[in-house]
């Protein structure tokens, strides 16, 4: 017996000695994977590691140095960011590694929460697909499983999919991002994912802790009679908000448009409350607002001129675009700096699983888009390019002057999206567009947009998400005149804006969803310069001093859900605007007109010195009440400020108009809008009627003196007039989104007025009374219809009617010093003829064979099928003492188009 005790004591000494050795280890690990680290620890100690090779991630590389640390400390540290648990058997000198499962002593233990540890849950013969989470000694009855559901074919997220554990009657659905969150009990769970149009996916999982898993569904190949998606959660929210419209790029491909070019912005012109001054007019007018009162955002970056060819085409590539959200009423508080609307354009994320693309060839343009994975299931790159070859159209025209003209444009977009992990996603978008035109003149006009934006979306926790946006935008134009060496010149203009926005979304509770953030904009404007092109030119060099300003804002809003029927949105935004030097500020005598004779001083401000500051408090108040699920009353009040202005004394906006900043002499524009609307659904939301009314009141609207010179004018404030304005109207939309026959009927009545009153005659227009703005068009009617004959054949049509815009006519003439002069009516007293146009189209889809290189789509359309000679402008000329009126049109005859599209 004594000998046995002696042997046991000796063994214990050996064990104790072995444990002491492993409590004081020094080891230097450099560029080793987990397997290599384990081998190194086995060589340095008497312990043997037992594990399944498949459970060890060999891609994890470790670079660490441990000095006099215990073996238990080292193993804990190298495995802390993995899903591997370990158990130390000190008696047998073995360390057992398990994936997720925590090996316990044979008897139950009681943890810190007085909960018993769970029994073993996996038998040797258990079949399972995945172990989720890493087990700990603190046991809970339920854990949270999160993830996303994707289309296996194209890696697009699937919204509205159901994830269900049938045995336990637990289920969840995916949101607009394909995300789900479900509470499941500890242990074995059998999950089934169900979505119409896809094969069901089933997985058996072992849930040990909170974790994540993704599902990939295969599309069903059998043909269905019809699959109808009535709406989604985000669209329901938008429908309940006043003045919000949305378009998806894929939904407009059948609308007949000019020269067959698929165009989101021109499609938006068919919606109520959104107009343009006419064909060839750059920009849009929303609810009686000016062109410069609209903010165009592409992935968070600002575009100052999102059009091509003098407004005939959008500069937004439809193949790379996902959707367009238009806020013309209750504008989200995160957007500031414009009075009328925000056009929020988002591009698609590139596929991270397979290479694919889309292309089209038309009579004047060609378009190509490709997507390519960079890191599988993590990142991808999308590239889009468009170009025109429209010069041949001008060559076949009868007008000899136009035969010598030239028009071309192109645009490029590239986006990289990367999923860093389940909580962080980043994307970068770069955009470039360029237009060059020479219409029956010796001047070559060129304008371009450049934009780059970076977006970082971070899920901080279950309740809080953030989005950081950093962008830079540049807009410039150039005039190159070289017909006459004595008058040849180069004229340049440049606008640059750098923008930073950091937004947070906090889901405080089911009743409160809070948004808050900061935004900062830095403006740099070169108002222009003109230089002679050669030594013979008599043109005088002019260089207008540059302008700079900083606009800083903070904002806070809360979406408050009092009940399922009643909800509110309230928000406030504070903005501080600082005009910065280098700057030359002119001071005029008070209570007198701004002209050279009343100039009393000129102050020069050094670089970044503040020459003028303005503060503005904007607010948003919106509400909706659901009488039933199919009848919603909605209303809102918005107040906004605008510190940058587009100056143009043309009847329509031009790409060569200049932008200027607010200073002491040009005040910020202010606007407040009241909206009230009613939304009604019919026949299970197949039909919808949206009726809205609005009233807008403005301060400091900008207009100009007669014959104002706005280009390259150092004293621009002497040409500018500012005064109050108002616009009001009613909008009606009847829409059928689904079925064999679908489309919408859109009508709006609106008035847009301005008042320029002063104690001085030179600053008074129309006797100081309200008069119509250049873009006042009371009646606007659009009808868009699509009829699907079969799955492959459909016909579509588009009818558009608008009131003629205001114009000033000559009403008489007189002679002075043997020279005849014209007298004119009050400003904008008359109107040009009304505009109306009918377009038709036939659409042919390619076959739906599974094994083929690409899916094709043909579009045959006729733009202006009735050959209506819609006037673009009215002008007058005096010849031999007679005054003659003329009208010019862009398209005065039918324009047939054939466009071929294909996806691969």
Automatic annotation (TrEMBL):
Keywords linked to the UniProt accession: Cell outer membrane, Membrane, Receptor, Signal, TonB box, Transmembrane, Transmembrane beta strand, Transport
Protein name, entry field: TonB-dependent receptor domain-containing protein
UniProt superkingdom: Bacteria
Transmembrane segments: none
Organism: Tenacibaculum geojense
Listed PANTHER family: HEMOGLOBIN AND HEMOGLOBIN-HAPTOGLOBIN-BINDING PROTEIN 1-RELATED, TONB-DEPENDENT OUTER MEMBRANE RECEPTOR
InterPro entries, per the entry: Beta-barrel_TonB (IPR000531), Beta-barrel_TonB_sf (IPR036942), CarboxyPept-like_regulatory (IPR008969), Plug_dom_sf (IPR037066), TonB-dep_rcpt-like (IPR039426)
Membrane topology: Multi-pass membrane protein
Family as reported in the entry's similarity comment: Belongs to the TonB-dependent receptor family.
SUPFAM superfamilies: Carboxypeptidase regulatory domain-like (SSF49464), Porins (SSF56935)
Subcellular compartments: Cell outer membrane
Residue ranges occupied by any TonB-dependent receptor-like beta-barrel domain in the UniProt entry: 405-865
């Amino acid at each position: 017996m004594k000998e046995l005790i002696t042997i046991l004591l000796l063994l214990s000494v050996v064990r104790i000695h072995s444990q002491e050795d492993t409590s004081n280890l020094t080891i230097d690990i450099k560029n080793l994977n987990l397997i290599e680290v384990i081998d190194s620890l086995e060589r340095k100690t008497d312990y043997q590691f037992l594990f399944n090779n498949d459970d060890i991630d060999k891609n994890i590389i470790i670079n660490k140095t441990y000095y006099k640390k215990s073996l238990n400390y080292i193993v804990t540290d190298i495995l802390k960011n993995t899903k591997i648990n370990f158990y130390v058997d000190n008696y047998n000198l073995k360390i057992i590694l398990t994936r997720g499962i925590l090996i316990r002593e044979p008897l139950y233990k009681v943890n810190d929460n007085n909960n018993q540890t769970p029994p073993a849950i996996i038998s040797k013969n258990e079949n399972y697909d995945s172990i989720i989470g890493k087990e700990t000694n603190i046991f809970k009855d339920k854990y949270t499983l999160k993830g996303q559901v994707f289309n296996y074919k194209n890696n697009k997220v699937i919204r509205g999919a159901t994830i269900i554990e049938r045995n336990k009657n637990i289920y969840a659905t995916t949101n607009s991002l394909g995300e789900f969150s479900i509470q499941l009990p500890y242990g074995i769970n059998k999950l089934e994912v169900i979505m119409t149009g896809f094969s069901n996916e089933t997985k058996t999982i072992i849930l040990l802790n909170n974790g994540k898993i993704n599902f990939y569904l295969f599309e069903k190949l059998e043909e269905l009679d019809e699959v109808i998606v009535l709406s989604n959660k985000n669209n329901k929210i938008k429908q309940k908000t006043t003045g919000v419209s949305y378009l998806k790029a894929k939904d407009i491909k059948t609308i007949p448009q000019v020269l067959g070019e698929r165009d989101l912005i021109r499609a938006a012109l068919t919606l109520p409350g959104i107009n343009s001054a006419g064909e060839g007019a750059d920009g849009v007018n929303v609810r009686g607002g000016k062109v410069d009162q609209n903010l165009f955002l592409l992935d968070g970056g600002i575009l100052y001129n999102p059009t091509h060819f003098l407004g005939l085409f959008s500069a937004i590539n439809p193949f790379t675009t996902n959707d367009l959200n238009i806020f013309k009423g209750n504008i989200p508080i995160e957007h500031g700096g414009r009075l009328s609307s925000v056009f929020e354009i988002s591009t698609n994320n590139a596929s991270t699983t397979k290479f694919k693309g889309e292309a089209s060839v038309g009579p004047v343009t060609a378009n190509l888009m490709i997507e390519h994975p960079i890191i599988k299931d993590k990142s991808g790159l999308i590239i889009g390019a468009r170009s025109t070859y429209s010069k041949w159209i001008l060559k076949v025209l009868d007008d000899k002057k136009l035969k010598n003209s030239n028009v071309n444009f192109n645009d490029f977009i590239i986006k990289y999206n990367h999923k860093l992990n389940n909580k962080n996603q980043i994307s970068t978008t770069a955009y470039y567009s360029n237009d060059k035109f020479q219409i029956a003149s010796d001047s070559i006009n060129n304008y371009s947009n450049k934009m780059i934006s970076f977006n970082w979306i971070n899920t901080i926790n279950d309740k809080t998400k953030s989005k950081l946006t950093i962008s830079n935008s540049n807009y410039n134009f150039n005039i190159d005149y070289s017909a006459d060496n004595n008058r040849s010149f180069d004229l340049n203009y440049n606008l640059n804006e750098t923008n930073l926005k950091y937004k947070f979304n906090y889901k405080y509770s089911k009743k409160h969803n809070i948004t808050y953030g900061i935004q900062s904009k830095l403006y740099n404007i070169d108002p222009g310069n003109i230089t002679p092109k050669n030594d013979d030119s008599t043109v005088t060099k002019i260089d207008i001093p540059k302008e700079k300003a900083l606009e800083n804002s903070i904002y806070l809003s809360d979406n408050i859900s009092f009940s399922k029927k009643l909800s509110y949105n309230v928000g406030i935004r504070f903005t501080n605007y600082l005009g910065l030097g280098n700057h030359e500020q002119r001071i005029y005598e008070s209570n007198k007109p701004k002209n050279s004779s009343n100039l009393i001083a000129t102050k020069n401000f050094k670089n970044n010195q503040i020459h003028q500051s303005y503060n503005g408090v904007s607010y948003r108040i919106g509400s909706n009440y659901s009488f039933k699920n199919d009848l919603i009353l909605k209303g809102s009040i918005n107040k906004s400020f605008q510190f940058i202005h587009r100056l143009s004394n043309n009847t329509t906006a031009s790409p060569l108009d200049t932008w200027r900043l607010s200073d002491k002499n040009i005040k910020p524009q202010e606007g407040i809008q009241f909206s009230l609307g009613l939304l009604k659904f019919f026949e299970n939301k197949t039909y919808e009627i949206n009726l809205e009314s609005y009233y807008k009141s403005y301060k400091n609207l900008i207009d100009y003196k007669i014959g104002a010179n706005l280009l390259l004018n150092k004293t621009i404030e002497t040409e500018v007039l500012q005064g109050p304005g108002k616009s009001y109207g009613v909008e009606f939309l009847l829409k059928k989104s689904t079925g064999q026959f679908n489309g919408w009927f859109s009508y709006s009545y609106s008035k847009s007025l301005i008042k320029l009153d002063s104690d001085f005659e030179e600053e008074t227009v129309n006797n100081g009374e309200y008069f119509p703005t250049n873009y006042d068009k009371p009646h606007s009617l659009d009808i868009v219809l699509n009829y699907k004959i079969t799955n492959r054949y459909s016909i579509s049509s588009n009818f558009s009617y608008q009131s003629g815009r205001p114009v000033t006519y000559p009403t008489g003439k007189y002679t002075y010093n043997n020279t005849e002069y014209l007298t004119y009516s009050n400003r904008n007293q008359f109107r040009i003829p009304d505009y109306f146009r009918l377009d038709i189209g036939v659409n042919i889809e390619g076959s739906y064979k599974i094994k083929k290189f690409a899916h094709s789509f043909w579009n045959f359309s006729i733009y202006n099928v009735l050959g209506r000679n819609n006037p673009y402008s009215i002008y007058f000329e005096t010849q031999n003492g007679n005054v003659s009126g003329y009208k010019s049109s862009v398209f005065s005859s039918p324009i047939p188009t054939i466009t071929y599209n294909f996806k691969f």
